[in-house]
Input
Amino acid sequence: MRSILLNPGPVSLSEGVRRAVTQVDLCHREPEFFKLQDKVIRDLLDIYQCDPEQWAAVLIGGSGTSALEAMMASLLPRETSLLVLENGVYGERLSRIAGIHGIRHQALEAGWGAAIDLDALAVLLASGSYTHVAAVHHETTTGRLNPVDDIASLCTQHGVQLLLDTVSSFGAESIPFEQPSLQAIAATANKCLHGIPGLAMVLCRRDALKLDIEPRTLSLHLQGWAEQQARQSTPFTPAVNAVLGLAQALKELHKQGGWKARRSRYRHLAAQVAETCQDLGVEQWLPAAESSCALRSYHLPAGLGYDDLHDGLKQQGFIIYAGQGELATKLFRISTMGEIGDYDMARLVQALQMVISGSKRNDYA
Ligand SMILES: Cc1ncc(COP(=O)(O)O)c(C=O)c1O
Output
């Protein structure tokens, strides 16, 4: 039986993407590959109608973290004073990346899953102590969607530049590219875009790429990748098959109506999971209005540990995801990214009913 992946990436692939990945053997120094690379770059910019005169899309070999590290290590000048907004694992990771690359930074911390305090952010930005803010859009730790519109407009108001981790939101949530403060976002092929792992990307303002910043890294040097990709080349061996997969995935995204249609689809699927859980007495960790379209967290049902829930659902062909750190014993996560059809969803509803209500019967026995 084919397993449906309900973890937040890698996602279940469409047949088209699965075929595209192995459709042809390509040498990465031949014109056929560079044509494909150009097309993927154009299509990435097209998702949010980013003006190619102002914005560059840069493909990076690696995972989402590679794109984050490339973005931060390459675009933050030595004199940067960075404020990192933390409310989960991935906000904390931004701080770790800053620390590793010697970037002066401080954090505005909220608890995991808590909302970012926008009033406190406004006060900190008004103090004039920061040149840049780094934030996570969809904090996948809990499914919280951070208010990047508000964050970007506060940054614009105070002349501070913004870098965003949109690893689990790019392609399915609204991103404020029109805000002058927004300098760059980092994303990956294998989440809302429905490609395969191994390929990540940074979309950044062309002006940001022109800054004279001493490289802190070789293989994640954004300017190096950007410069060579702009002249139909590549600095290192790229993730050729992942680029083939992403080209097809982007074609499918466009055909399905773009990021807004994908958001609607994800929301529809997430609501069905939430309703089923609610009927079974399983509460959501966060209100739907504060959650991303792509993933929601749920309290573990009384009397059912994560491993039993996971294994019961796995037997039915569904892979769910555990909470991280201290949340491991408290919540579970269900992502509705990827190729998930109505039939899969109907089966998931049945599987949840069987595993959760079965456990309740055992609990009462
Ligand atoms: C918001 C966010 N940022 C960063 C990452 C790290 O991505 P990767 O595991 O591909 O390096 C993830 C992974 O789930 C994520 O959800």
Summary: The pocket of pyridoxal-5'-phosphate is lined by residues 8-9, 63-65, 90, 136, 138, 140, 165, 167-168, 188 (CB under 6 Å). The radius of gyration is 21 Å.
